[in-house]
Amino acid sequence: MTDSGRLTVIAGPMFSGKSEELMRRVRRATIAGVDVLVVSHSLDTRSDISTITSHTGVNIPAVPLGDVASLAEAARQKDYDLIAIDEAQFFGPDLVPAVDELLRRGIDVIVEGLCVTFDGQPFEPLPSFMAVAEDVLRLTAVCTVCGKDAVFHQRLEQTESPLGSDSAKIAQAPAATLAATTIDASHIGGLDTYVARCRQHFTGAGHET
Ligand code: ADP
Ligand code: MG
Prior knowledge:
This protein is 19% helix and 23% strand. It is built from four helices and twelve strands; from the N terminus they run βαββββαβαβαβββββ. It has helices spanning 18-31, 68-76, 95-104, 126-132; strands spanning 7-12, 36-41, 51-53, 59-61, 63-65, 82-85, 108-114, 135-138, 141-142, 149-150, 152-155, 194-197. The strands form four sheets. The chain has a six-stranded parallel sheet, sandwiched between helices. The chain has a two-stranded antiparallel sheet with strand order 3-4. The protein binds adenosine-5'-diphosphate and magnesium ion (MG). Magnesium ion (MG) binds next to helix 1. Homotetramer. It is an enzyme of class 2 (transferase). Its main location: cytoplasm.
């Protein structure tokens, strides 16, 4: 009987270094001769979709996939030792049973993604993965207002400077047009769209200070 694989979760808000940490682990595994499949989501169009790219611009090759079925199919193509998934929240809750299946087949899996939405709510499937993982790395970013640990990120209006302190200008998108858990391009962005915030300076929906 094959030993089960290990599940490692790397979770946090935007800018917390999740992709950097995933890339570091993938590089180490590659040096060790581990057969790795690196998966990105085809919705993540911030850069070449055949790469995982960090906010610092560093990247590694990845296979862009659009859904859980394509991931399961890609995982069957070769005898992989490790499957590393970037921006796992894009795959939605169906990713949980799909990853469980990989683990049962003896494949180690690293799931990396946002565990919190831009309005400060748990963002599945990361919280579910955190509950059942052998290892969880919970990262924080740096609050753009005070420099403390940021557990949140929030959307920024075009007119606001990322360092600006005018919380009234933080975008409060109408719920009908922009659900924080919608699996779409609203979760793709960088310094021009989102900012990292600590608990005190987070002013996302329902958390006005
Ligand atoms: P994630 O995948 O979690 O969004 P990345 O790994 O792509 O994060 O990028 C992390 C890098 O982003 C940091 O090493 C740093 O250079 C840069 N960065 C920009 N803004 C911030 C911030 N507010 N807090 C922390 N890092 C930031
Ligand atoms: Mg990332």
